[in-house]
Amino acid sequence: MSALAARRRHPLATVVLVVIGLFATGLAYAAVIPTAASAAQPSADDIAAGRKLFLANCATCHGFNAEGRDEAPSLIGVGAAAVDFQVGTGRMPMTTTGPQAPKAPEVDFTDEEIKQMAAYVASLAPGPPIPDADQVDPAKGDPSRGAMIFRTNCAMCHNFAGKGGALTRGKYAAGLAGVTPTHAYEAMVSGPQSMPVFNDATMDPQSKRDIIAYLDAVSSAPSPGGLNLGSIGPVSEGMVAWIFGIIVLIGCAVWLGSKAA
Amino acid sequence: MNDGTAGGMSADEHTHGGDGELAVREPAGLPERFENPGLPEHRHRMADVDPKAAKRAERQVATLFGLSALGTILVLVFYFAVPLKPDGGFVESLSRLQASNLLLGLALFVALFGIGAGAIHWAKTLMPDDERVEYRHPQRSSGAERAEAAQILAQGGAESGLGRRPLIRNSLIGAMALVPLPMVVFLRDLGPLPGDDLSTTMWKAGTRLILDPEGRPIKAADMAIGSIAHVLPEGIEKVPDLLEEKAKSAAIVLRLEPGLLDAAASAGAYQGIVSYSKICTHMGCPVALFEQQTHNLLCPCHQSTFHVPANCKVIFGPAKRPLPQLPITVDSEGYLVARSGFTEPVGPSFWERG
User: Which residue of A77, A97, B218, B315 has the fewest C-beta atoms within 10 A of its own C-beta?
Assistant: First the structure.
């Protein structure tokens, strides 16, 4: 220690200190920032297999190097999250042209194949990775805070209970019931189709996990009234009130006015 | 036959029953005036003739009242049995609230409806139902009474001397005209005039954009292309009229692909990041449905559509004005800040808006 103290006025001491400081900062930054390193690193084989799958299934529209065409956007920089979302929910490959690629009941690819395609697209340019299980664990989110963030950022399109809603010219915001937490997270970071991007800087990962916890809570919440009427708010509730309420009121009025005998 | 009366003549002939079919037949056997048929025969109810039925009706009414009492007790039981627990976790709080609403509502329905239904059943089965006739009488007073009343009024007018003493008459009119004046002046106390509150918000040069609801400032570098964030002015949580201020100041900030913005939109942009009022210029709903691919903002209430690259020009719907822009830049630390307030008053039109 005394040897170190004796050299503290050495002409090179400042330089050494700066180098140490920079190194430490870099290490801390690498440790703190969420990167693709948190997921399992794809191997070169995965990327090669993914490229094959890409050429066979996606390149017709997205171009041989994923550079995009008139009818399909470039996939350079969209990241693994976008591929896992679009292919994993069956939206891609698109079966027909239309205002919007719908969620398909059946997915054409195995998880393995989707991961390979995702690895290939991610290898083109850095983009949001597929989140790990911890990032999307509803048990670790706060549904109450998630509800608040959901109402400000999501509810205007997806409805307060995540039932979805209409946009313009045949486009729509999809219903969120049954969407896996991973796909929900990927949609937020990648902004598929009409949806804007909610990157980790404007909506931090904890907020995303809170939203996932809220969606989980809403979909599992019991309906003590027996009917939630689609959770679409005043339209269905008003209709029930009008139809059944008015029938009851008319029945009472007829009873009141009828002659007793 | 070729003059104007020809048609009239033939029509006249028709009504007089010249050709049979169209003729109006003479009403056969109808009296000049209908007889008053009188009241229908009174039919007795079961409860009037059968004491057992009366007893039964009595029991039914009492049962309905009893049901009401039971409902009231149930309201209290449910109130205490299903307490609201705001801290019981999100799902549990919500389902407790719903269960409590349902049970209280059902019990209260039984409590109120039981009284009403019992009262009606009572009146219909047990209270007297024999018909009674009350004749209407003319309400007009006799000619003598009317003349007398008119004479009293005229005499009073003459005796008061209003016509003879114009000084009294005029001063009375003046006093009566002035009396309501204080009431009009008191209207001031209904509240302060809005002043320029409708035209201004708390955004001013250098106010940071903070995320709603997290309350965290955002940096320009945080905004990815195609991303949207909902923002409020920094320090809004400290203003006394938070909700009013929030209703005016709420804004959205978005980043579009470079080169999309037109000249007007670029004027308030920072590196492709633009901020606009979130309050629709039609009825004040929050305009926040952003279609990333078409770059349109939609209002959920009446489908007004604003095209962001054209400075939020209205391209569809009932809104008449574009969304006011919030010109933005960054401060020395890289955080997004307002360059000034909104370029125009936010929200729907109002009288003094100009």
Answer: A97
B289 interaction partners in chain A (CB closer than 8 Å) = 156-157, 167, 173
Output the pTM of the full model: 0.72
Q: Is the pLDDT confidence value at B11 over 70?
A: no
- The span from the CA of A205 to the CA of A218, in Å, is 20
CB proximity list for A166: less than 8 A, separation 6 or greater: A172, A173
Q: What is the mean pLDDT of chain A?
A: 85
If one counts every other C-beta atom within 10 angstroms of the C-beta of residue A252, the result is 14
Chains A–B, number of C-beta pairs less than 8 Å apart: 100
Domain boundary among B101, B125, B149: B125
* Lowest model confidence (mean pLDDT) among A80-84, B107-111, B159-163: B159-163
Of residues A38, A63, A68, A37, the one with CA closest to residue A51? A63
Q: Is pLDDT of A36 > 50? A: no
- Note whether A196 contacts B: Cβ–Cβ < 8 A: yes
Whether residues A221 and B94 touch (CB distance < 8 A) is answered with: yes
Residue A261, pLDDT score: 56
pLDDT digits (tens, 9 = 90+) for A133-188: 999 998 899 988 999 999 999 998 998 888 888 888 889 999 998 899 999 999 99
Domain range spanning residue B257?
A: 209-353
Instruction: Tell whether the model's pLDDT for residue B62 goes beyond 60.
Output: yes
Residue B214 and residue B100 in one domain: no
A positions 36-65 inside 8 Å of B (CB): none
CA distance B250 to B232: 5
| Nearest Cα to Cα of residue B309 among B345, B340, B269, B252 | B269
CB of A14 within 8 Å of a chain B CB? The answer is: no
Residue A3 has a pLDDT of 67
Q: Is residue B162 a part of any domain in this protein?
A: no
Nearest residue, CB atoms, B224 vs list A148, A165, A197: A197
All residues of chain A having their beta carbon less than 8 Å from the beta carbon of residue B224 are 197, 199, 201-202
Query: In this structure, are B222 and B349 located in the same domain?
Result: yes
